[in-house]
Amino acid sequence: DQQVKQNSPSLSVQEGRISILNCDYTNSMFDYFLWYKKYPAEGPTFLISISSIKDKNEDGRFTVFLNKSAKHLSLHIVPSQPGDSAVYFCAASASKYSGGGADGLTFGKGTHLIIQP
Amino acid sequence: KAGVTQTPRYLIKTRGQQVTLSCSPISGHRSVSWYQQTPGQGLQFLFEYFSETQRNKGNFPGRFSGRQFSNSRSEMNVSTLELGDSALYLCASSSSAGGPDTQYFGPGTRLTVL
After folding, report:
1. CA of A81 to nearest chain B CA: how many angstroms apart?
2. Which of A95, A97, A107 is opposite residue B43, by nearest beta carbon?
3. Are B104 and B5 spatial neighbours (Cβ–Cβ below 8 Å)?
């Protein structure tokens, strides 16, 4: 049972336009969400995160939106650039320890974003 | 600040052998997690260590084990290798200073089992 789902295996967007990557989750215990960018044969690179107490977090060209009632989050990239072409993973965690520290991350299968010139 | 480092980067083993992978976290980070990435299953959580103790474990057989040293460096061991263990093994570190945590990943070790 996939607890984090990225239903679009790939997405093609023109350079300069907005890229919107979507992610759905089923576990209501998840309270922290992250987006990672990954190139082949490399480790994921952290992009942006959001806590469940917020519904939006912005960092430069990247904005993450969280809709808790729909159990849905999205990553917006504006404007899209050729260097943004990569696989994007959505991840979620449920804080388990009173002392802080995240549980293991649960990842989606990823969306391959292709930015066309 | 140096990032997460993993050694070796590539490894070829045969079925039945055992392997040890190493991970050095970002300086000051006390939590180290391990993940397996395969084309079919994606990224899956193996286990997490904090202050030399395994704090959480994913759904993997006992052939997969790990440990953490007092300097927070961690090793992961896989015994009696199977063909299906071929994967990219990723290590991630976090400060675990309290509250939600962001994990930072190393480049991974590509293990091929023949």
Report:
1. 23
2. A107
3. no
* d(C-alpha B91, C-alpha A77), whole Å: 27
Peptide bond into B61 cis (omega under 30): no
Structure tokens at A4: 């984090």
Q: What is the mean pLDDT of residues B56-60?
A: 87
CB contact under 8 A, A43 and B98: no
CA dist., res. B92 & res. B81, Å (int): 23
Element (H, E) at A93: strand A86-93
pLDDT digits (tens, 9 = 90+) for B62-113: 999 999 999 999 999 999 999 999 999 999 998 865 555 688 899 999 999 9
Which residues are CB-contacts of A71 (< 8 A; sequence separation ≥ 6)? A24, A25, A26, A28
SS3 of A82, please? helix
